[in-house]
Specification:
Elements lengths: L1 H15 L8 H17 L4 H8 L3 H13 L3 E3 L5 E3 L1 H23 L4 H11 L5 H16 L1 H8 L2
Antiparallel strand pairs: 1-2
Helix pairs in contact: 2-3, 2-5, 3-4, 5-6, 5-7
């Protein structure tokens, strides 16, 4: 029993030694929201971000400063928020991950609201190779609708 627990601990440790850049889930969430706001409105404000992230404006300001320190955006108080190319790339990847996971869960028959919540929880933690395989699997399933039908209606 002890050996099994030790293997599990080693597995957990290995999972947390990611090759991914050390951006927090929260930082990625901010980049995603900023990107969506810019696409929707043409700009993002501290107040908009505060509303969508359900946090205070001072918290947004602190995170914007942190994102700027990491060269993910350019922020000038009372002016504008612009994602750098690096920030934009991360936001695009998160959006793509979100779409792939959402589609996968919906194919499984998970309702949209639950699928969206679950996706928000894991979209930041998957290896790009896993996302690539999920995308291939979804493409395969969509090219073979009878498989999806037989899964949903056994």
């Amino acid at each position: 029993m002890k050996d099994k627990n030790s293997k599990r601990l080693d597995s957990i440790k290995a999972a947390h030694q990611s090759e991914k850049a050390s951006y927090s889930t929260r930082m990625e969430d901010y980049l995603e929201v900023i990107s969506e706001l810019v696409e929707l409105k043409g700009y993002a404000t501290t107040l908009d971000i505060s509303r969508y992230m359900n946090v205070s404006a001072p918290s947004v300001t602190k995170m914007l400063q942190r994102l700027e320190e990491n060269k993910l955006l350019e922020y000038e108080k009372y002016h504008g928020i612009n994602l750098t190319s690096k920030g934009t790339q991360i936001a695009i990847e998160i959006r793509q991950n979100h779409g792939i996971l959402l589609e996968f869960f919906e194919i499984l028959g998970v309702n949209h609201e639950t699928a969206n919540k679950d996706t928000e929880g894991i979209e930041h933690h998957l290896n790009p190779k896993t996302i690539k395989q999920l995308r291939k699997f979804i493409t395969f399933l969509k090219a073979n609708p009878k498989i999806i039908e037989s899964f949903k209606n056994p």
